[in-house]
Every structure is written in structure tokens, then in C-alpha cells.
Amino acid sequence: MVAASVPERDGAKQLLEQLYQERSRVPRLVHIWVDGGFNGEDCCHWIMDRFRWLLEVVLRPDGVKGFVLLPKRWTVERTYGWLHWCRRLNVDYERLPASSEAFIHSAMIRLMLRRLT
Is pTM, for the whole model, over 0.85? Predict the structure, then answer.
């Protein structure tokens, strides 16, 4: 877990270090989409050199005003929307991150099962 007072890029480095230590849980992770806050070359090169993961920055097109649908961003936001249908995930009641992770897994399993019927 990373404190909210940590800058975005520094927090990402801490989080990715933790994820890399547990890489057996995500063996297929190769490509990571990030928003414009990670646009700096230093951050991207550090992640590519350290972990061998590809970072792709998803930005709004230049010169466009108003709402623009960003495909990868929409996928993440829609997933958050589905997760918030579960009351237990609306507020962080859990003491352990593993408990929260278990509830997220069960919520996504429920969502997938509903789509099968």
C-alpha cells in the first residue's frame, strides 16, 4: 500500500516494486496502460529497464474539446463502476488488503457468472 501523500510517480514505483516481488501472481503482465501523470521519460525508462514491462501512456488527442472516450481508460472506469455495485466494496471496511482483494475477486466472478446466463 502507498500513502496518499506520495507523488504519483513515486507511488507507482513503490507499487510496482511490490508487484514485482509477487510476480508469480501475475506472470502474464507485460503491458501497462497509464494516464498522463506518468508521461515523463524517466519514469517510463525506469520501469522498462527495471522490470521489462512496457508502459503505454493513454492521452487525450490534441486539440479536442469536451468529452473524449479513451478506450483503455473506459475499461478501467467501467470496471470500477461494476465493483461499486457490491456494497462491501463501496467503503473500505477491511483491515487486510488480502480481504479486499478476495471481495474484488468474488465481485468479478459474480459479474462473469451473470453474463453467462
Answer: no
